[in-house]
Design a protein that fits this description.
2 domains, two-stranded parallel ribbon, disordered N terminus, six-stranded mixed beta sheet, 7 helices, alpha/beta
């Protein structure tokens, strides 16, 4: 009996894996993604190390593994005898969680009338275009080292953007091109858990897009001779 699983990854559309079953491609279902992501919330969110290319290569199976139970199974099968088992497990769970949340957010954007998904699925600098402006999307938790509390930070969006570009990952996704940030904040400090709240994020994104005007986007000159266009969608839990 085949297991039907929603397929969303523009990168791995033809290779999504459900261990031990056959797979039929289906249209994305945001609710199904939210259900899977929330299964991750009972496990601690620990990296144990900075993101690096070595651990990325070890855990690239997360791109083609949708069901959370199968992620756990893959981790156990591949690394149960590895001395780094716990570190790799944490790393893989975090990458899986962040990837599938990002896929859902990109799908939300791409469903809106003035948004066009990227034509080249392998272009890591462009996820979609809004009113002719290309963007890479990045969902980020509110950084604990940002020198302002949330009530001041929302008034200093330009400073937060500079901070995010400066302190971004130094690995494969590092760049200074256009980005649209979705910044998450929860009063209990568990900002990372909001990545699983897909329905809630959908509301925040749609509200932002109603008033979207490319003339109000922020512009920076991070690189000589190049202008970076960017903005922040604040997703603050009350």
């Amino acid at each position: 009996m085949c297991l039907h699983v929603p397929v969303t990854s523009k990168y791995y559309l033809s290779t999504l894996k459900v261990t031990g079953t056959c797979l039929k491609k289906m249209t994305i279902n945001l609710n199904d993604i939210e259900i899977q992501l929330k299964k991750r919330l009972t496990y601690p969110y620990k990296w144990g190390r900075k993101q690096n290319d070595q651990f990325d290569k070890l855990t690239n199976f997360i791109y083609r593994t949708f069901l959370f139970e199968n992620v756990l199974r893959e981790i156990n099968t591949r690394f149960k005898k590895d001395k780094e088992h716990q570190n790799i497990s944490n790393y893989a769970l975090n990458r899986w969680y962040n990837f599938w949340s990002a896929q859902a957010v990109e799908k939300i954007f791409s469903s809106l009338p003035n948004v066009k998904p990227a034509l080249d699925s392998k272009d890591r600098l462009v996820d979609f275009t809004i009113d002719g402006v290309t963007f890479d999307h990045k969902t980020s938790v509110f950084p604990k080292n940002f020198p302002y509390p949330i009530n001041e930070a929302v008034k200093k969006t330009d400073e937060l953007i500079k901070w995010l570009y400066k302190h971004q990952s130094q690995q494969q996704r590092k760049h200074l091109k256009n980005r649209l940030f979705v910044v998450l904040y929860s009063p209990d400090g568990e900002h990372w858990k909001l990545k699983a709240e897909i329905s809630w994020l959908k509301e925040r994104i749609e509200k932002y897009m109603v008033g979207f005007n490319s003339n109000y986007l922020m512009k920076f000159n991070f690189e000589q001779g190049s202008t970076t266009i960017t903005d922040v969608i604040w997703a603050v839990k009350g």
